[in-house]
Amino acid sequence: MISIMRFNTLVLFITLLLSIPVSHALPQHSPVPGGVAIVDLKYDGDSRPEVSYRGNPVMVHQGESGWQAIVGIPLSASPGQAKIKVRTNPRNYSIKFVINDKQYAEQRLTIKNKRMVNPTAEDLKRIRKEVKIIRKAFKNWNDSFAIPAGFAQPTKGIRSSSFGLRRFFNDQPRRPHSGMDIAAPEGQAVIAPADGKVITIGDYFFNGRTVFIDHGQGLVSMFCHLSDIDVVEGQEVSVGETVAKVGMTGRVTGPHLHWTVSLNNSRVDPELFMQATE
Ligand SMILES: [Zn+2]
Question: What is the CA(207)–ligand 1 centre distance, in A?
Fold first, then answer.
C-alpha cells in the first residue's frame, strides 16, 4: 500500500510527464558538404517564413528563440560562405552561413556484372529516363507534415558509415555514395523511419526496386535494392510500418538496405537524423 504522500508525488510526476510537449527533434548541426546546417533566421514572428537555398525551398522550425532553417548541404557544395534567402512579411533578406570542409574516404568495389559499371547504349537510355523520375521525387515539397521527432532505424543491422565515400567501381571513378548502407539479410522488413507518404515506387537500373517516402518540408527517404515493396504510390505510412523487404536488386555486391535521406533536394548523411536532438 502506498502512502498518500507517495501517491501525490506519483500524480505530480505523471502530470509533469504529460505536460511535456511532443518535441520536434532537429537533426544534428553539421555544416559540411553532405551535412545539415541549422541557421537562426533572426525572426520571431507568428507567420511561417519562406526560406530557399540554391533555388529549393527549405525546412523551417519555430524554436523558443525564434525561427530556424534546417538546411541540407549537397556533397558537391564547396566549403566557404553560403547564403539562404528568407521571405517574411514584410521583410525579404538573406543570411550567410559557413560550410566547413570535410574529406570523405575512398572506397573501391568490384562489380562482377560489367554492365552495371559500363552500361550499354540501351541501358543508358533507360538510366536517363530513371534519373529524371528520381530527381523529381527528391524535389517533392509538402508542408502539411510536422518535422519528424527523429528517425527510427529503417531495418535491423549495423549502420555503416558509408555516406559520402568517394567511389571507384572496378577502378573507375563514379559519383560519391549519397546514402547509408545497412547490412541485412534478404527479406528482412524495412520500416518507415518516420511518418510520411509514398511519393513513388520503381525498379531502376542502378537502384533496383525502390521506394520514396516524403516526410514533409523537403525531407525525403529513398530505399533501394529491395526484394519486395509492400506499399503503393500515394499511401500514407506511419513510423514503424513495414514498407518493403531488404534485397539485392540493382548494382550491389550483396544484400543490404541503401537509405538515402534528402533535404531541400540535397542528399545528406542519414546518421545526423538518427542522433536527433531538440
Ligand atoms: Zn548504398
Answer: 9
pLDDT value, residue 207 = 95
Structural contact between residues 228 and 253, judged by C-beta atoms closer than 8 angstroms: no
- Domain 106-274 falls under CATH 3.40.50.11540: no
Look up residue 262 and give its amino acid.
S
Distance from residue 187's CA to the centre of ligand 1 (Å): 17
Report yes or no: 184 and 255 within 8 Å, Cβ to Cβ.
Answer: yes
Q: pLDDT tens, 162-190?
A: 899 998 888 888 889 999 999 999 999 99
What is the DSSP-derived secondary structure letter of residue 151?
A: -
Question: Looking at domain 26-99, what is its CATH homologous superfamily?
Answer: Peptidoglycan hydrolase domains (2.60.40.1590)
CA of 179 to the centre of ligand 1 (A): 6
Question: Which residues of the chain have a pLDDT value below 50?
Answer: 1-2, 15-22, 277-278
